[in-house]
UniProtKB/TrEMBL annotation:
GO terms for biological process: cell morphogenesis; division septum assembly; regulation of cell septum assembly. Interacts with MinD and FtsZ. It comes from Secundilactobacillus oryzae JCM 18671. The gene is minC. This is Septum site-determining protein MinC. Keywords: Cell cycle, Cell division, Septation. Residues 4-83 form the Septum site-determining protein MinC N-terminal domain. The keyword Cell cycle applies.
C-alpha cells in the first residue's frame, strides 16, 4: 500500500496521504520522496517547489501537521502551501448538526420547487436544475446540487455556502450572486462561497474558513 502519492495539477504539485496508512509510514515515504525529488532535474531547475497536501478523510492533529512541516523545512527548495482534508463527510456533518441548531434536509428539490427556511441548513439531498434552496443562515451541502443555493436571505452578506458547488446553477449570499459555468469551479466538497470585503461573491476553501469567517470557525470549534 502506497502511503504517499505525488500528483501534478495546474497549480503545481499535490501530495495525497493515504488515509488508511499509518502516520509513521506516511512520514517514512514522505522523506524518501523528498530525497528522490531533491535530485530530480525538474526540481533542481525550479527555484522553489510548493506542495498542497491532501489527507483525504484523515484529520491530522496539530503535532502531525508540525511534523510534516518540520520535515519539509529540511529541504530548502520545498515548501507546504496548505494541508487540507475532505473533512465535510457525513460523520462531520452530523457532528456539526449535534453542536449547532442546524436544519437537516435530505429531500429532492425538483425543477420549479423552492424550499425556504430560517437558520443554518445541512443539505444531504439533491437539487435539480431550476430547484431552489433558500435560507436566512449558512448552507452546508454534501448533497448533489444542480440548482440554486441562497444563503443569508434576503441581504445578510456575512453568511456562506460550503460544499461541492461546481454543478450548481447559481449561488447567492445575501444580495450578491454568481452564475456557475462549466469551468469556473472544480469538483471539491471544500468550496466556500462568500461575500468579500468589496461586497463581491467569491470563493475559497475550507482550510481558509478561519480567515473568511472567524465567528463561524470559532462556533464549530475550529473543526
Amino acid at each position: 500500500m502506497q502511503a504517499v502519492l505525488l500528483k501534478g495539477n495546474q497549480n503545481g504539485y499535490q501530495l495525497v496521504l493515504n488515509q488508511s496508512a499509518s502516520f509513521e509510514d506516511i512520514m517514512i515515504e514522505l522523506e524518501a520522496l523528498f530525497e528522490k525529488l531533491k535530485s530530480d532535474p525538474i526540481s533542481i531547475e525550479a527555484s522553489k517547489v510548493s506542495f498542497d497536501v491532501l489527507t483525504e478523510d484523515r484529520i491530522l492533529q496539530s503535532e502531525e501537521k508540525k511534523q510534516i512541516e518540520d520535515l519539509t523545512a529540511n529541504y530548502p527548495k520545498f515548501s507546504i502551501h496548505k494541508i487540507s482534508a475532505n473533512v465535510m463527510t457525513v460523520a462531520d456533518a452530523y457532528f456539526l448538526k449535534e453542536r449547532e441548531n442546524v436544519h437537516l434536509i435530505s429531500r429532492t428539490i425538483r425543477n420549479g420547487q423552492e424550499i425556504q427556511l430560517k437558520g443554518d441548513i445541512l443539505f444531504l439531498g439533491t437539487i435539480h436544475e431550476g430547484g431552489k434552496l433558500i435560507t436566512t443562515g449558512n448552507i452546508f451541502s454534501i448533497g448533489n446540487v444542480a440548482g440554486i443555493l441562497h444563503a443569508g436571505f434576503p441581504n445578510s452578506e456575512e453568511k456562506l455556502i460550503l460544499g461541492d458547488l461546481h454543478n450548481a446553477q447559481q449561488v447567492r449570499v445575501g444580495e450578491q450572486f454568481d452564475v456557475i459555468d462549466d469551468e469556473k469551479l472544480e469538483e471539491d466538497v471544500q468550496t466556500i462561497a462568500y461575500v468579500n470585503d468589496l461586497h463581491v461573491l467569491t470563493y475559497g476553501s475550507l482550510n481558509e474558513l478561519k480567515q473568511i469567517n472567524p465567528k463561524l470557525y470559532n462556533r464549530i470549534g475550529g473543526h
